[in-house]
Amino acid sequence: MNSSETVAYRNELVREVFGSLSIDKSRLPSSGLTGTGVPSFVGEWLLDKIVPGTGSLTSEELEKVNSFVQKAFPRKDDKEEIIFYLTQDAFYKLIALMQVRVKVEQKTGEIPEPLARIPVLNLEECSISPDLVQKNLMLLRQGLWGKISLTMRPDGQIEVVGFEPFQCSAIDLKAYAECRAQFSTDEWRDLMFCSMGFNPQHPSYSREAKTWVLARLLPLVEPNYHIMELAPKGTGKSFVFENISNKVKLISGGKITPARLLIDGRTKEIGLIGRHDVVVLDEVQSLTFDNPEEVIGPLKTYMASGRYNRSGFADISSDCSLVMLANIELDEQQRPKNEDNLIANLPKFFNETAFLDRFAGIIPGWQIPKFQRDMTAYQTGLKMDFFGEALLALRQDSRFIQYAQQNTHFDSHVTVRDQNAILKSAAGFLKILYPHLKLTVMDYQRDCLEPAMQLRQAIRNVLYHLDDEFRQTEREIYAEIAF
């Protein structure tokens, strides 16, 4: 039975409990902001500032938003016009993503100054005061979206003289848990689902389908958690990763260089894995490397230990989670055509079992319905910036893995790697569904342990198919709650 058939969505309760941290999810799709390339966590923040309210935007509100976008959001071809404006002794304010780096020159005897980068305008070396950077240290990692104030110095260098970040500040996890306690499990599941941007009351979303959509959040709540999703086109695999947080980086197909992913041996700049909490490789069926082993070798080391090195540099530690998304073909029964070997159509390096074994699981995307317009959330959910930060804030809370360890019993034949993968997935589901940790062991079995086992079983099945070594023990993974 669909959960949407049994649970009424309580918009009033969401607004009562979360107040200004909630938003009517119909606002953003009706605003046109998503068509400008603005991620949801920025768009929802802006709408609440410019045109707060509920329901689809009125014509007057749309006009106000459009006017704001035209003034505040630059296009790449606006660069020269903005530079000219700055030469006329004027300030210029815009809304964009900004990143900062410190360019260290050897043996100059001078302390280097930070330099700001605004990708949308292709501005690479803007001056910025250390004080501004100190107040917004995330600029030095993946960068921040915000309101940027520019001017031009007498020497012609563009300078950032003001910055107001949009993203949510520190999360109070105790208060978040207290909020969770005011919802039933089904109500909370639907709130999480709605906050992701999906309609929890759509009849096509069964409880099982919702579980696999929510599984996309596991890499956010669990550090060093690596997972795949295999699905036909059109199930919305990448949607949440594109829109939930700037700490999540999505890369779509094509060629990936070790310099971009790991570390640039020439500039010594740390790659994406060292700067983001989650890195998502989309369309991996078309992923290529000039020298696969130069990437896969360090990745195997990193996925096992949380550390990697390249080009003679010292080990780099990170808790970044890796996500691989790929399209697969289904048969007439809407099952994978290669069910015994789900990775049959992926690049050859996936056939290396030592690499594959390091993934916690495979999300069965074929059990998620293809996304249609009426599957977009229209209820009241959590603002995307708050939602993303709350999930990411749970990464370092060790109580959930301890709960999973204490309440899970494995058969003796289950490998340590299988056990660790299942425990991390189960702990992740706990963080998503039970952040207050108030549940029965039967709740844990149904909502956390069983889906965690299914995720890992999919990996186990492929390993069993590919390598005789994995046929030395039983194919099925057995685990149960510990009484």
Descriptive report:
With 483 residues, this protein is of the alpha/beta class. It folds into two domains: 98-165, no CATH class; 179-481, Rossmann fold, CATH 3.40.50. 37% of the residues lie in helices and 17% in strands. The chain contains 19 helices and 16 strands. The chain has helices spanning 11-18, 27-31, 40-50, 59-72, 79-87, 130-135, 173-180, 185-195, 207-214, 218-221, 239-243, 258-261, 272-275, 292-305, 353-356, 384-393, 399-406, 416-433, 441-466, and strands spanning 22-24, 92-102, 114-118, 123-128, 144-152, 158-165, 227-231, 248-252, 278-282, 307-308, 316-317, 321-327, 361-364, 380-382, 408-410, 479-481. The strands form five sheets. Strands 2-3-4-6-5 form a five-stranded mixed beta barrel. It has a five-stranded parallel sheet with strand order 8-9-12-7-13. The chain has a two-stranded antiparallel sheet with strand order 1-14. β5 (144-152) and β6 form a beta hairpin. The longest helix has 26 residues, at 441-466. The protein is globular and about 75 Å long. The model has no long low-confidence stretch (mean pLDDT 89). Residues 16-150 form the BREX system Lon protease-like BrxL N-terminal domain. It holds the Pfam family BrxL_ATPase.
Largest sheet: 5 strands, mixed, barrel
Point out poorly predicted stretches.
none
Helical stretch count? 19
State the helical fraction.
25-40%
Over all CA atoms, what is the radius of gyration? 23 Å
